[in-house]
């Protein structure tokens, strides 16, 4: 049970790192530091977008338009920090205490 809990937390942490990499790469592409016509950066950006965009698209539809500043990654990170981590920990704590009886 502990191994499953650890794997789930590691997957969530991997998603957080992927989200941060996506944001950094998006900023580098937006400011013109990296070129989207470069096949290597395009493939990395496209792969990260396919992982991150399904989570951020519903949040973007809820948030108001702020004119070029995307707050969806920050909202996703806050939701993970304050809802997902505590929920996973509570679920596994309840499962661990249930199985001891």
Automatic annotation (TrEMBL):
InterPro entries: CCB3/YggT. The chain crosses the membrane at residues 6-33, 71-93. Pfam families: CCB3_YggT (PF02325). Keywords: Membrane, Transmembrane, Transmembrane helix. It comes from the Bacteria. This is YggT family protein.
